[in-house]
């Protein structure tokens, strides 16, 4: 003998209440999710840039290259990052040539062309709106800057001023500041934004914009 069972379901009113709750939670959570996603994207590109700088400097310290170059190339809504190395033989040839010096020149041909080590491209903006490069060597003799990276404004980090850096931000933020990341809160710099700093010895530091100051990571 089968026992009768009560079959229960949702009423229309209960379904409407559940749908309303889900809609409210989604509306509240979506902006936070998008902010988190943007932050992850910007931080990811910053970590790659930091890694490229460390890697190419390590190769210089090991003697794999006499001089190394890190280059930034903004292109519309994206930015390209290159690391390159100059062989010891090339450096010697240039240094021994009458009237010539090794430079950090940004060129599509010449002694940097066939020595690309690493390349990355991201849909992000930086604080420069044209090509820029910085070069390093093991003995610090070739700490050189070229293009927009040689003409940077000083920024304040941990109570000191520096012009050896690259800022990475969203293209939306950059579009509010003439197509490049602002460098200060007064100029319109907004979160999410990250900064990679270097010095002549190839030491790399990372910072996150907190809304009013750069915080070390």
Describe this protein's structure.
- With 217 residues, the protein is an alpha+beta fold.
- The chain has one domain (36-216).
- The chain has helices at residues 12-61, 88-96, 171-175; strands at residues 67-75, 78-86, 116-122, 125-126, 132-137, 144-147, 155-157, 160-162, 165-169, 193-198, 204-209, 214-216.
- The strands form 3 sheets. A 5-stranded antiparallel sheet has the order 3-2-1-5-6.
- The longest helix is centred in the first third of the chain and has 50 residues, at 12-61.
- It is elongated.
Order of strands, main sheet, comes to 3-2-1-5-6
Major β-sheet profile: 5 strands, antiparallel
Give the SSE string. HEEHEEEEEEEHEEE
> Which spans have pLDDT < 50 for at least 5 consecutive residues?
none
- Rg, alpha carbons: 25 Å
- DSSP strand count: 12
Number of domains: 1
What helical percentage do the residues reach?
25-40%
Structural shape: elongated
Mean pLDDT: 87
- The fraction of residues in strands falls at 25-35%
Specify the structural class.
Answer: alpha+beta
Question: How far apart are the termini?
Answer: 71 Å
Quickly list its features.
5-stranded antiparallel sheet; 217 residues
Break the fold down into its secondary structure elements and pairings:
Elements lengths: L11 H50 L5 E9 L2 E9 L1 H9 L19 E7 L2 E2 L5 E6 L6 E4 L7 E3 L2 E3 L2 E5 L1 H5 L17 E6 L5 E6 L4 E3 L1
Antiparallel strand pairs: 1-2, 1-5, 2-3, 4-9, 5-6, 7-8, 9-10, 10-11, 11-12
Structure, briefly:
The chain has three helices and twelve strands, in the order αββαβββββββαβββ.
């Amino acid at each position: 003998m089968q026992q009768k069972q009560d079959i229960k379901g949702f009423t229309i009113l209960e379904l409407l209440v559940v749908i309303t709750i889900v809609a409210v939670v989604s509306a509240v959570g979506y902006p936070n999710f998008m902010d988190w996603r943007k932050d992850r994207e910007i931080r990811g590109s910053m970590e790659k840039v930091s890694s490229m700088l460390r890697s190419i400097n390590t190769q210089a310290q090991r003697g794999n290259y006499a001089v190394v170059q890190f280059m930034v190339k903004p292109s519309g809504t994206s930015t390209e990052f290159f690391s390159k190395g100059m062989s010891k033989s090339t450096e010697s040839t240039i240094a021994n040539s009458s009237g010539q010096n090794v430079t950090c020149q940004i060129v599509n041909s010449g002694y940097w062309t066939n020595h690309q080590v690493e390349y990355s491209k991201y849909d992000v903006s930086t604080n420069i709106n044209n090509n820029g490069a910085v070069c390093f060597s093991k003995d610090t003799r070739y700490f050189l800057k070229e293009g927009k990276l040689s003409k940077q404004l000083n920024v304040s980090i941990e109570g000191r001023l520096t012009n050896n850096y690259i800022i990475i931000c969203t293209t939306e933020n950059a579009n509010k500041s003439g197509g490049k990341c602002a460098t200060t809160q007064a100029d319109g710099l907004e979160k999410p934004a990250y900064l990679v700093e270097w010095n002549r010895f190839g030491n790399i530091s990372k910072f996150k914009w907190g809304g009013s100051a750069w915080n070390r990571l």
